[in-house]
Prior knowledge:
- By secondary structure, this protein is of the alpha/beta class.
- It folds into two domains: about 5-190, Peptidoglycan recognition protein-like (Lysozyme-like, 3-Layer(aba) Sandwich), CATH 3.40.80.10; about 215-285, Muramoyl-pentapeptide Carboxypeptidase, domain 1 (Orthogonal Bundle), CATH 1.10.101.
- It contains ten helices and nine strands.
- It has helices spanning about 35-45, 85-90, 130-145, 150, 155-160, 170-185, 195-205, 230-240, 250-265, 280-285; strands spanning about 5-10, 25-30, 45-50, 50, 60, 65-70, 110-115, 155, 190-195.
- The strands form two sheets. It has a seven-stranded mixed β-sheet with strand order 8-2-7-5-6-1-9, with helices on both faces.
- The longest helix has 18 residues, at about 130-145.
- It is globular and about 55 Å long.
- The relative contact order is 0.18.
- Bound molecules: zinc ion.
- Zinc ion binds near residues 27, 156, 163 and 165.
Amino acid sequence: MPLNVVSAPGRKTSGRSMTTPVGIVVHHTASSAKASESNVIAMCIRGVAKVPGPLYNYLIGRDGTVYSLAVDGLKANHAGRGNKSVLDRMMKGQPVSGKAATPGQISANSRLFGVSIINDGLGQDIPTPQYEACVAICASLCDDHNINPLSGVIGHSEWTSRKVDPTFDMHDFRQAVVSRTSNVPGLTRLVIAEKPEQEAALVAALTTPKEQTTDLTFPGTLKRGSRSESVKLVQRRIGSTPDGIYGRRTQARVKLWQREWNKQRAYTSNALSVDGVVGPMTWKQMNFRDIDLDWAPNSFFS
Length: 302
Ligand SMILES: [Zn+2]
């Protein structure tokens, strides 16, 4: 059986190109389990907050449909900064060493495909067809780009300690990719097909003007000891469990977020204070919009 890949309507056709790909980073979207799949797909093409789309090269629906979000060879903004030692291992064909110990400093999206399943990352089940399609698209990319699955297929949490995705076991996943590539050589090549019944919903979601979203009003300074719904929004933005209680861990992750934001935006903006406090500037840069209430990525560089 060939792997059917659906061309998502509105997928990116121009942008920065990848150089020779050396690997694949596997993700989940951290989208709300209640969000419609059309909206998630559209958002991943368009981008979010400070990150222009596509947010991945391939996105996998819960029914196992694989959506191509950009034409072949375009770079997607998916992995953020990670560890040079990990990239070095991939390029030398050395097996993945496990979860990353540090956030890392380098960007390598031009060398790494981004593949993501639609999943909230908070315990939502992963249907078998979705998991199998994720294996299949990775196997296909490995075949087409001469990537060794054991060294070249990593989870986002193996790229950077900032991330926890995906939640499934990557050792098992890599073994599944290996069996798919070696058992059916040549049969997993991509076939791009359209899926007309989904097109109308996708186009509608894509053409919703950005202006329909509004910035959420600053609720007042949020800091250690704060408890509110706004704290939950902050926690979702920084990838913490959204319990609404601004404790020591939330404070530490806000600091990390502020430090990363400064690194990425240093050339365009004034730096944020790295103080673990969400004041008006940090709130503004976290860029909360009403649409986030339905779909909040785990951070601005996911
Ligand atoms: Zn990720």
